[in-house]
Input
Amino acid sequence: MHDKHSPAVDCCERAMPGIRGLAPYEPGRPISDIEREYGVSNIIKLASNESPLGPAPGALEAARAALDDIAMYPDGNAFALKQALAARHGVDAEYITLGNGSNDVLDLIARVFLGPGRNAVFSRHAFAVYPLVTVAAGAQVREAAPVAADGDMPYGHDTRAMAEAIDDKTGVVFIANPNNPTGTWLTADALRELFDRIPRHTVIVLDEAYCEYVDDARYPDGSSWLAQYPNLIVTRTFSKAWGLAGLRVGYSVCAPQIADLLNRVRQPFNVNLVAQAAALASLDDAAHMRRAVALNNSEREKLCAGLHALGLHYLPSAANFVCVQVPDSPRVYEALLHAGIIVRPVDGYGLPGFLRVTVGLPEHNQRLLAALEKVLA
Ligand SMILES: Cc1ncc(COP(=O)(O)O)c(C=O)c1O
Output
Protein backbone atom coordinates (compact mmCIF):
# COMPACT_ATOMS: atom_id res chain seq x y z
CA MET A 1 0.00 0.00 0.00
CA HIS A 2 1.76 3.18 -1.19
CA ASP A 3 0.75 6.46 -2.81
CA LYS A 4 2.64 8.72 -5.21
CA HIS A 5 4.53 10.34 -2.31
CA SER A 6 5.97 7.19 -0.84
CA PRO A 7 8.24 4.80 -2.70
CA ALA A 8 7.36 1.15 -3.20
CA VAL A 9 9.02 -0.70 -0.32
CA ASP A 10 9.45 -4.17 -1.67
CA CYS A 11 10.93 -5.61 1.50
CA CYS A 12 7.50 -5.23 3.17
CA GLU A 13 6.35 -8.15 1.00
CA ARG A 14 8.83 -10.26 2.91
CA ALA A 15 7.60 -9.40 6.38
CA MET A 16 6.77 -12.61 8.22
CA PRO A 17 3.34 -13.87 7.15
CA GLY A 18 1.83 -13.70 10.65
CA ILE A 19 2.88 -10.06 11.06
CA ARG A 20 1.33 -8.99 7.75
CA GLY A 21 -2.01 -10.40 8.88
CA LEU A 22 -1.98 -8.54 12.21
CA ALA A 23 -4.11 -5.48 12.96
CA PRO A 24 -2.28 -3.07 15.32
CA TYR A 25 -3.58 -2.70 18.88
CA GLU A 26 -6.10 0.14 19.04
CA PRO A 27 -5.67 2.19 22.19
CA GLY A 28 -8.33 4.49 23.64
CA ARG A 29 -8.33 7.81 21.77
CA PRO A 30 -6.21 10.50 23.44
CA ILE A 31 -7.86 13.69 24.72
CA SER A 32 -5.75 15.89 22.38
CA ASP A 33 -7.10 14.01 19.31
CA ILE A 34 -10.70 14.61 20.28
CA GLU A 35 -10.04 18.27 21.08
CA ARG A 36 -8.58 18.75 17.59
CA GLU A 37 -11.15 16.72 15.71
CA TYR A 38 -14.37 17.63 17.52
CA GLY A 39 -13.50 21.11 18.73
CA VAL A 40 -14.67 20.29 22.25
CA SER A 41 -12.95 21.04 25.52
CA ASN A 42 -13.32 19.79 29.09
CA ILE A 43 -12.95 16.26 27.81
CA ILE A 44 -13.00 13.22 30.07
CA LYS A 45 -11.33 10.01 29.05
CA LEU A 46 -13.04 6.87 30.26
CA ALA A 47 -11.43 4.70 27.61
CA SER A 48 -8.23 3.11 28.90
CA ASN A 49 -8.95 1.93 32.46
CA GLU A 50 -6.58 4.44 34.04
CA SER A 51 -6.95 5.46 37.68
CA PRO A 52 -8.80 8.77 38.10
CA LEU A 53 -6.91 9.36 41.38
CA GLY A 54 -3.56 9.12 39.63
CA PRO A 55 -0.40 8.08 41.44
CA ALA A 56 0.39 8.45 45.13
CA PRO A 57 1.88 11.88 45.94
CA GLY A 58 5.11 10.19 47.05
CA ALA A 59 5.38 8.45 43.68
CA LEU A 60 5.13 11.78 41.86
CA GLU A 61 7.73 13.28 44.13
CA ALA A 62 10.09 10.36 43.52
CA ALA A 63 9.54 10.63 39.75
CA ARG A 64 10.38 14.34 39.82
CA ALA A 65 13.49 13.74 41.91
CA ALA A 66 14.61 10.97 39.55
CA LEU A 67 14.62 13.43 36.64
CA ASP A 68 17.88 14.80 38.01
CA ASP A 69 19.56 11.50 37.15
CA ILE A 70 18.26 10.81 33.67
CA ALA A 71 21.63 11.31 32.05
CA MET A 72 22.43 7.89 33.50
CA TYR A 73 21.08 4.51 32.44
CA PRO A 74 18.67 3.00 34.93
CA ASP A 75 19.66 -0.01 37.04
CA GLY A 76 19.14 -2.73 34.43
CA ASN A 77 18.35 -5.25 37.15
CA ALA A 78 16.12 -2.79 39.08
CA PHE A 79 17.50 -4.09 42.37
CA ALA A 80 15.44 -1.94 44.74
CA LEU A 81 12.13 -2.35 42.94
CA LYS A 82 12.58 -6.09 42.58
CA GLN A 83 13.41 -6.41 46.28
CA ALA A 84 10.27 -4.49 47.22
CA LEU A 85 8.06 -6.55 44.90
CA ALA A 86 9.62 -9.79 46.09
CA ALA A 87 8.86 -8.82 49.70
CA ARG A 88 5.28 -7.97 48.73
CA HIS A 89 4.77 -11.41 47.19
CA GLY A 90 6.79 -13.35 49.78
CA VAL A 91 9.27 -14.67 47.20
CA ASP A 92 12.95 -14.15 46.36
CA ALA A 93 13.88 -11.35 43.94
CA GLU A 94 14.77 -13.91 41.23
CA TYR A 95 11.05 -14.62 40.87
CA ILE A 96 10.40 -11.07 39.60
CA THR A 97 10.78 -9.98 35.96
CA LEU A 98 10.06 -6.36 35.17
CA GLY A 99 8.47 -5.08 31.99
CA ASN A 100 7.77 -1.82 30.23
CA GLY A 101 4.16 -2.32 31.24
CA SER A 102 2.89 -5.86 31.74
CA ASN A 103 2.35 -5.95 27.96
CA ASP A 104 6.11 -6.12 27.65
CA VAL A 105 6.19 -9.18 29.91
CA LEU A 106 3.41 -10.83 27.86
CA ASP A 107 5.55 -10.25 24.79
CA LEU A 108 8.64 -11.73 26.48
CA ILE A 109 6.63 -14.82 27.40
CA ALA A 110 5.41 -15.23 23.81
CA ARG A 111 8.94 -14.86 22.46
CA VAL A 112 10.28 -17.49 24.81
CA PHE A 113 7.49 -20.08 24.67
CA LEU A 114 5.69 -19.52 21.35
CA GLY A 115 6.80 -19.80 17.72
CA PRO A 116 6.01 -21.69 14.53
CA GLY A 117 4.43 -25.05 15.31
CA ARG A 118 3.12 -23.91 18.71
CA ASN A 119 -0.21 -22.42 19.72
CA ALA A 120 -1.59 -20.26 22.50
CA VAL A 121 -4.98 -20.91 24.07
CA PHE A 122 -7.21 -18.15 25.39
CA SER A 123 -10.87 -17.30 25.62
CA ARG A 124 -12.69 -15.53 22.76
CA HIS A 125 -13.17 -12.12 24.37
CA ALA A 126 -9.87 -12.08 26.25
CA PHE A 127 -7.37 -9.20 26.31
CA ALA A 128 -6.35 -8.05 22.80
CA VAL A 129 -2.62 -8.32 23.38
CA TYR A 130 -2.71 -12.15 23.64
CA PRO A 131 -3.43 -12.71 19.93
CA LEU A 132 -0.97 -9.94 19.01
CA VAL A 133 2.00 -11.43 20.82
CA THR A 134 1.05 -14.96 19.76
CA VAL A 135 0.87 -14.15 16.06
CA ALA A 136 3.93 -11.89 16.23
CA ALA A 137 5.86 -14.86 17.61
CA GLY A 138 4.75 -16.96 14.62
CA ALA A 139 2.43 -19.20 16.64
CA GLN A 140 -1.23 -20.09 16.11
CA VAL A 141 -4.19 -18.79 18.10
CA ARG A 142 -6.57 -21.36 19.59
CA GLU A 143 -9.58 -19.48 20.82
CA ALA A 144 -11.87 -21.20 23.33
CA ALA A 145 -15.62 -20.52 23.24
CA PRO A 146 -16.66 -18.13 26.02
CA VAL A 147 -19.34 -18.48 28.68
CA ALA A 148 -22.77 -17.97 27.10
CA ALA A 149 -24.41 -14.54 27.11
CA ASP A 150 -26.89 -15.72 29.74
CA GLY A 151 -24.27 -17.33 32.02
CA ASP A 152 -23.24 -16.00 35.45
CA MET A 153 -20.14 -14.40 33.91
CA PRO A 154 -21.43 -13.60 30.42
CA TYR A 155 -18.77 -13.76 27.66
CA GLY A 156 -16.16 -14.61 30.30
CA HIS A 157 -13.65 -17.47 30.33
CA ASP A 158 -15.20 -20.95 30.08
CA THR A 159 -12.52 -22.99 31.84
CA ARG A 160 -13.79 -26.32 30.43
CA ALA A 161 -13.69 -25.01 26.87
CA MET A 162 -10.20 -23.67 27.54
CA ALA A 163 -8.96 -27.01 28.89
CA GLU A 164 -10.41 -28.77 25.86
CA ALA A 165 -8.65 -26.38 23.47
CA ILE A 166 -5.22 -27.35 24.82
CA ASP A 167 -3.24 -29.86 22.75
CA ASP A 168 0.34 -31.08 22.66
CA LYS A 169 1.39 -27.99 20.67
CA THR A 170 0.05 -25.52 23.22
CA GLY A 171 2.95 -23.43 24.51
CA VAL A 172 0.97 -20.93 26.57
CA VAL A 173 -2.50 -20.58 28.06
CA PHE A 174 -3.42 -16.94 28.72
CA ILE A 175 -6.00 -16.23 31.43
CA ALA A 176 -6.98 -12.69 32.40
CA ASN A 177 -8.48 -12.57 35.88
CA PRO A 178 -10.46 -10.31 35.85
CA ASN A 179 -10.74 -10.17 32.09
CA ASN A 180 -10.64 -7.05 29.96
CA PRO A 181 -13.00 -6.03 28.35
CA THR A 182 -15.72 -8.16 30.00
CA GLY A 183 -14.76 -7.48 33.63
CA THR A 184 -15.68 -11.08 34.43
CA TRP A 185 -13.53 -13.19 36.73
CA LEU A 186 -12.80 -16.72 37.93
CA THR A 187 -12.84 -18.11 41.45
CA ALA A 188 -9.90 -19.98 42.98
CA ASP A 189 -11.84 -23.26 42.58
CA ALA A 190 -12.54 -22.70 38.88
CA LEU A 191 -8.93 -21.73 38.23
CA ARG A 192 -7.52 -24.74 40.05
CA GLU A 193 -9.79 -27.04 38.10
CA LEU A 194 -8.39 -25.55 34.89
CA PHE A 195 -4.76 -25.51 36.09
CA ASP A 196 -5.01 -29.18 37.06
CA ARG A 197 -5.86 -29.99 33.45
CA ILE A 198 -2.94 -28.05 31.96
CA PRO A 199 0.15 -30.17 31.25
CA ARG A 200 3.27 -29.18 33.18
CA HIS A 201 5.14 -28.47 29.94
CA THR A 202 2.61 -25.76 29.01
CA VAL A 203 3.04 -22.30 30.49
CA ILE A 204 0.07 -20.81 32.34
CA VAL A 205 -0.09 -17.00 32.23
CA LEU A 206 -2.41 -15.63 34.87
CA ASP A 207 -2.82 -11.95 34.05
CA GLU A 208 -3.85 -10.12 37.21
CA ALA A 209 -3.75 -6.55 35.84
CA TYR A 210 -6.98 -5.70 37.70
CA CYS A 211 -6.56 -7.92 40.78
CA GLU A 212 -6.49 -5.03 43.26
CA TYR A 213 -10.12 -4.18 42.49
CA VAL A 214 -11.58 -7.61 43.22
CA ASP A 215 -13.37 -7.68 46.51
CA ASP A 216 -14.42 -11.30 46.97
CA ALA A 217 -12.99 -13.97 49.26
CA ARG A 218 -13.24 -16.54 46.45
CA TYR A 219 -10.72 -14.58 44.33
CA PRO A 220 -7.18 -15.99 44.60
CA ASP A 221 -3.77 -14.33 44.63
CA GLY A 222 -2.16 -16.43 41.91
CA SER A 223 1.34 -15.58 43.10
CA SER A 224 0.79 -17.79 46.15
CA TRP A 225 0.32 -20.86 43.91
CA LEU A 226 3.77 -21.03 42.34
CA ALA A 227 4.91 -24.00 44.42
CA GLN A 228 1.96 -26.10 43.27
CA TYR A 229 2.09 -24.94 39.66
CA PRO A 230 5.74 -24.45 38.66
CA ASN A 231 4.61 -23.66 35.09
CA LEU A 232 2.62 -20.62 36.30
CA ILE A 233 3.56 -17.01 35.46
CA VAL A 234 1.52 -14.33 37.22
CA THR A 235 1.58 -10.85 35.66
CA ARG A 236 0.78 -7.60 37.43
CA THR A 237 0.88 -3.91 36.55
CA PHE A 238 1.31 -0.47 38.05
CA SER A 239 -0.91 0.95 35.27
CA LYS A 240 -4.31 0.46 36.90
CA ALA A 241 -4.91 0.75 40.65
CA TRP A 242 -1.43 2.20 41.23
CA GLY A 243 -2.08 5.04 38.75
CA LEU A 244 1.18 4.86 36.77
CA ALA A 245 -0.05 3.92 33.27
CA GLY A 246 2.04 6.62 31.58
CA LEU A 247 5.30 5.39 33.07
CA ARG A 248 4.85 1.78 31.89
CA VAL A 249 5.79 -0.59 34.68
CA GLY A 250 4.58 -4.16 34.94
CA TYR A 251 6.11 -7.40 36.15
CA SER A 252 5.75 -11.12 36.48
CA VAL A 253 6.19 -13.48 39.38
CA CYS A 254 7.29 -16.99 38.41
CA ALA A 255 9.84 -19.72 39.05
CA PRO A 256 13.40 -18.36 38.75
CA GLN A 257 14.16 -20.85 35.95
CA ILE A 258 11.39 -19.27 33.86
CA ALA A 259 12.41 -15.74 34.88
CA ASP A 260 15.93 -16.55 33.71
CA LEU A 261 14.57 -17.39 30.23
CA LEU A 262 12.47 -14.22 30.13
CA ASN A 263 15.52 -12.19 31.08
CA ARG A 264 17.45 -13.56 28.11
CA VAL A 265 15.11 -11.79 25.66
CA ARG A 266 14.35 -8.75 27.82
CA GLN A 267 15.84 -5.45 26.65
CA PRO A 268 18.57 -4.55 29.15
CA PHE A 269 16.95 -1.30 30.33
CA ASN A 270 13.30 -1.97 29.62
CA VAL A 271 12.02 -0.11 32.71
CA ASN A 272 13.29 3.44 32.76
CA LEU A 273 14.84 5.26 35.67
CA VAL A 274 11.89 7.53 36.45
CA ALA A 275 9.45 4.62 36.25
CA GLN A 276 11.52 2.50 38.64
CA ALA A 277 11.65 5.33 41.19
CA ALA A 278 7.92 6.06 40.98
CA ALA A 279 6.87 2.42 41.17
CA LEU A 280 9.09 1.84 44.19
CA ALA A 281 7.74 4.91 45.99
CA SER A 282 4.15 4.00 45.18
CA LEU A 283 4.60 0.68 47.01
CA ASP A 284 5.34 2.72 50.14
CA ASP A 285 1.90 4.30 49.92
CA ALA A 286 -0.39 1.33 49.43
CA ALA A 287 -3.05 3.29 51.33
CA HIS A 288 -3.37 5.56 48.27
CA MET A 289 -3.93 2.53 46.04
CA ARG A 290 -6.53 1.19 48.48
CA ARG A 291 -8.34 4.55 48.41
CA ALA A 292 -8.41 4.40 44.61
CA VAL A 293 -9.85 0.89 44.78
CA ALA A 294 -12.48 1.84 47.38
CA LEU A 295 -13.57 4.84 45.33
CA ASN A 296 -13.66 2.73 42.17
CA ASN A 297 -15.75 0.00 43.72
CA SER A 298 -18.36 2.32 45.22
CA GLU A 299 -18.51 4.37 42.00
CA ARG A 300 -18.76 1.21 39.90
CA GLU A 301 -21.82 0.24 41.88
CA LYS A 302 -23.41 3.66 41.34
CA LEU A 303 -22.52 3.65 37.66
CA CYS A 304 -24.12 0.21 37.24
CA ALA A 305 -27.23 1.37 39.08
CA GLY A 306 -27.40 4.39 36.75
CA LEU A 307 -27.00 2.17 33.67
CA HIS A 308 -29.72 -0.11 34.98
CA ALA A 309 -32.01 2.88 35.55
CA LEU A 310 -31.47 3.81 31.89
CA GLY A 311 -32.65 0.33 30.93
CA LEU A 312 -29.18 -0.71 29.72
CA HIS A 313 -27.72 -4.18 30.01
CA TYR A 314 -24.12 -4.39 31.28
CA LEU A 315 -21.71 -7.20 32.11
CA PRO A 316 -20.94 -7.84 35.79
CA SER A 317 -17.50 -6.35 36.40
CA ALA A 318 -14.99 -6.82 39.21
CA ALA A 319 -12.57 -4.31 37.67
CA ASN A 320 -12.38 -0.55 37.03
CA PHE A 321 -14.56 -0.58 33.91
CA VAL A 322 -17.96 -1.76 32.81
CA CYS A 323 -18.98 -3.14 29.43
CA VAL A 324 -22.42 -1.83 28.55
CA GLN A 325 -24.69 -2.73 25.65
CA VAL A 326 -26.25 0.22 23.87
CA PRO A 327 -28.55 0.41 20.87
CA ASP A 328 -26.69 1.64 17.77
CA SER A 329 -23.35 1.73 19.55
CA PRO A 330 -21.41 3.61 16.79
CA ARG A 331 -23.92 6.46 17.02
CA VAL A 332 -23.78 6.52 20.83
CA TYR A 333 -19.97 6.44 20.76
CA GLU A 334 -19.88 9.41 18.37
CA ALA A 335 -22.47 11.35 20.36
CA LEU A 336 -20.45 10.82 23.53
CA LEU A 337 -17.32 12.12 21.76
CA HIS A 338 -19.26 15.24 20.75
CA ALA A 339 -20.19 15.60 24.42
CA GLY A 340 -16.49 15.39 25.32
CA ILE A 341 -16.58 11.86 26.74
CA ILE A 342 -14.22 9.24 25.35
CA VAL A 343 -15.24 5.61 25.89
CA ARG A 344 -14.09 2.46 24.09
CA PRO A 345 -16.03 0.52 21.47
CA VAL A 346 -15.22 -3.19 21.79
CA ASP A 347 -16.26 -4.48 18.37
CA GLY A 348 -12.65 -5.53 17.89
CA TYR A 349 -13.05 -7.83 20.89
CA GLY A 350 -15.98 -9.59 19.21
CA LEU A 351 -18.50 -7.62 21.27
CA PRO A 352 -20.29 -5.35 18.79
CA GLY A 353 -23.01 -3.27 20.40
CA PHE A 354 -21.01 -2.88 23.61
CA LEU A 355 -19.02 0.10 24.86
CA ARG A 356 -16.43 -0.28 27.61
CA VAL A 357 -16.45 2.60 30.06
CA THR A 358 -13.80 3.16 32.70
CA VAL A 359 -15.10 4.07 36.14
CA GLY A 360 -14.10 7.69 36.71
CA LEU A 361 -14.47 10.24 39.46
CA PRO A 362 -18.06 10.72 40.73
CA GLU A 363 -18.56 13.81 38.54
CA HIS A 364 -17.25 11.95 35.48
CA ASN A 365 -19.63 9.07 35.97
CA GLN A 366 -22.55 11.44 36.51
CA ARG A 367 -21.65 13.31 33.34
CA LEU A 368 -21.47 10.04 31.43
CA LEU A 369 -24.88 8.91 32.70
CA ALA A 370 -26.44 12.29 31.90
CA ALA A 371 -24.94 12.23 28.39
CA LEU A 372 -26.13 8.67 27.82
CA GLU A 373 -29.63 9.60 28.96
CA LYS A 374 -29.69 12.47 26.47
CA VAL A 375 -28.26 10.39 23.61
CA LEU A 376 -30.69 7.55 24.19
CA ALA A 377 -33.77 9.78 24.54
C1 LIG B 1 -5.96 -7.66 31.09
C2 LIG B 1 -4.83 -6.73 30.83
N1 LIG B 1 -3.58 -7.18 30.94
C3 LIG B 1 -2.52 -6.39 30.74
C4 LIG B 1 -2.68 -5.07 30.41
C5 LIG B 1 -1.45 -4.29 30.10
O1 LIG B 1 -1.27 -3.20 30.87
P1 LIG B 1 0.17 -2.50 31.01
O2 LIG B 1 0.98 -2.87 29.82
O3 LIG B 1 -0.14 -1.07 31.08
O4 LIG B 1 0.74 -3.07 32.27
C6 LIG B 1 -3.96 -4.53 30.28
C7 LIG B 1 -4.14 -3.11 29.90
O5 LIG B 1 -5.17 -2.65 29.58
C8 LIG B 1 -5.06 -5.37 30.50
O6 LIG B 1 -6.31 -4.93 30.37
Observations:
- The chain has two domains: 12-54+287-376, 57-284.
